């Protein structure tokens, strides 16, 4: 069966199905290009049923077993040093520089100054914690992650809204994701499959697992997988090796190269002015297989290649 995978790869941003964005940018005249992909992948706002941080205590009151998992789905190491993590009232964390996430790896951020010295994040993954007193709310909250160029992604539940000091002068990438406002103790919400799937409550991992360094903390039938990949892998029908934008004679020329294509229907181009927050369809294989350019309007533009 032929299909079109809803994978959005930005010159400005790369994001699978919603919210991946970049480590930095390159400039070609007035065209800005970004590369690589970071996404919010799993959130546990009520950890009061499992000792997820492996400190020997189920944190029913201090919320130290709550966490946010951030993943790098690209094929290159991304330094998130200087990036900001925030909820609806508080800047949780400004990641120290460097904080480098390897390809296909993650960083797990625990809340409330949790002791993470005995938590094993998995091979190649990172773990850290926010200062004491900072926690996730079980209702009406939001998580935002902003890079050093002022681009941010966010996931909210209920009526959570990011504070003005986080969003002022910043640009939301894509659309804010809304997940369930009815948290279940010890059960995270996550993408399934990891990286690219839609959000849902994390399935139960049947059996006993031990994510502690000293192998003394066991969890029976946990409903989260901090630092672990869970769900089915998804192979993409297109292997994209390059995507760039250059200005030629007053027009933007988008160039991309694929290494392989399997039952790919075609490509679509989306454009957004850097001063705006939304992307509009510029051209599509459905109506114009040649994808001949529309005149560039000047200024700094961001482009998505979708296939």
From TrEMBL:
Which positions fall inside the LTD domain? 30-221
- Report the InterPro entries cross-referenced here: Lamin_tail_dom (IPR001322), Lamin_tail_dom_sf (IPR036415)
PROSITE patterns from the UniProt entry: LTD (PS51841)
Q: What is this protein called?
A: Lamin Tail Domain
